[in-house]
Design brief:
Radius of gyration of chain B: 26 Å
Strand order of the largest sheet of chain A: 1-2
Order of helices and strands of chain B: HHHHHHHHHHHHHHHHHH
Distance between the termini of chain B: 28 Å
Distance between the termini of chain A: 33 Å
Strand content of chain B: under 5%
Number of strands of chain B: 0
Oligomer: heterodimer
Number of domains of chain A: 2
Structural class of chain A: mainly alpha
Number of helices of chain B: 18
Shape of chain B: flat
Shape of chain A: globular
CATH topology of the largest domain in chain A: MetI-like fold
Structural class of chain B: mainly alpha
Radius of gyration of chain A: 24 Å
Helix content of chain A: over 70%
CATH class of the largest domain in chain B: Mainly Alpha
CATH superfamily of the largest domain in chain A: MetI-like
Order of helices and strands of chain A: HHHHHHHHHHHHEEH
Helix content of chain B: over 70%
Number of domains of chain B: 2
CATH architecture of the largest domain in chain A: Orthogonal Bundle
CATH topology of the largest domain in chain B: MetI-like fold
Largest sheet of chain A: 2 strands, antiparallel
Amino acid sequence: MSQSNYRLVKALLLIFLGIWLVFTLFPLYFMIITSLKPVEEINRTIPTFWPHTLKLSNYAGIFADPGSLKSLADSVIISVANTALSLLLGTLAGYALARWIRGAAGENLAFWILSNRMFPPVAVIIPMFFLFDSMPWGTDSYFSLIVLYLVFNLPLATWLMMVFFRDAPRELEEAAYLDGFTPLRAFFRVTLPLVLPGMISVAMLCWIFAWNEYLFANLLTGTTVKTFPVHIPTFTLGSQSLWNLIMAFSLVAMLPPVILFVILRRYMVRGLSLGVVKG
Amino acid sequence: MTAATSDPAATAPTVAPDWFAQRRRRGNLIVNPLVPWAMVGLPVAVLVAIVVYPTIWMAYHAFQDTNMMSLFNGNWTFVGWQNFATALTDERFLNSVRHLVRYLLFGACLQVALGVTLALILYECVKSNAVRVILLILLVLPMMLPPSIVGVLWKFLLQADNGGFNHLLINLQLLPANQRIDWLGTRLSLWSITLVDVWQWTALPLLIVYSGRVSLPPAIYEAARVDGASSWLVLRRITLPMLKEVIAIAFIIRFMDAYKFVDHVSVMTQGGPSESSELPVYIAFQKGIREFQVGEAAAQAWLIFAVAAVLITLFLKYMKRVLKAQAIA
């Protein structure tokens, strides 16, 4: 390929990247400006791409609304509790699978646990709906979502912790035994610090999945407990959607996972690729 | 915390060499080879309770005529394969299967193709490292957003009359000013959902493949450069073959996620208008939890489940091979 040809191809590729970037960012830009517009401006027949009036009071409205704050708090409670549970159980099982249960049995077990993450939850949620409905706590509770989010987070946490523990050199642990460490102390002082970056990435991923989850929350909860995705459709006035409030609330709700991703993206690649790609 | 985490102590002798036996005899350790199994058993028990048990429950009810009334009376009757026959002859369900095939073909496959292309353009054509990182963050951003919010946002953008997307196209001269595309109408609803999926999830293969490309050894590229290989040849003979596994894994993860994903459908169109954007998983949910036709929903769920089981078995077999090559599994 000649030099000028090469330049042309490269320029075309960069243009394609630029178009994709615009396509990616336009909705986010439109979301931000919509969250700053008054309702009248949103309802115009031709939308404005540059808001004529900036109205920060939409955000003030969100933070003054007890329903919105409660839904965010509910999301925090459920996602944090589920992450803690997934991480605890996943670390225990991952360590056992990585160090002790080897061979075909351990391998099949690990892959079976992982496979649970990939199955469509449709066969899970219908029975669980009726089961929880007949229980004293009911479907519309913190407990039901904290437990049901384990369906996808527990397999992920177990599998990834196993991968991270296998990466941590066993020799260091054995050297600690030689120095007179008890196994428990060796685990906490030697092995755990080694897998700490892995644990952070698992915790972040589990938390983001639990935070973002919509389907289970929508089907099971809505009155007593209401996570933020279930709360969004309530921003209406009569039959009219209050898009400015919806967008302001959505921006507040999606900020935490975005910030986490920007800070910790290095740790996440491994987890997102189920341990295959070392980021 | 204490009870659970003291477990590793118990089975350490299987890890430790013989000199460790002395320490064991001093009595500060409990020796029990069952402890690792107990540690694994905890999550396995949870998964049996919340995944295996419901699946078996569904398998049972797939052969019963269970509906809302009979479920609460407890008197359903055995109907054999009738529920499966109903599902497989139901035009609505079969249509949703056709939708799913189209959605996966144009959604998941396109996302991986685009993700690979964009990742490689980003790595090869952008010189400055700082710019690359910023672009990567911006391009991957949609993936981190809650799918429900993405659905709401696009539903707003794709409104026919005063939606931002139509007017963006008009401003870019791609659409005549007096024309509006009815993105969420019967004809385009599924395509629009696929578009939103592509917007949100192209980021996943992009991020994975980009990271895979970063970790390829530079020495090979140096050698190729010295030998005077063209960029095209390097791409075809070095980069793509070496990224083969990474791309395949990205595809597997994206494909299985898309197979079960109905958040956008649920938020944007609720399967409509007139069932034009329904997916099998969505129908099964509606049948089971909204209409309480549990027997029929169970049959549909099991059909979905069986196909998933075949795919997952194949995918995990492949993944096992990749991980073996990396000496992780």
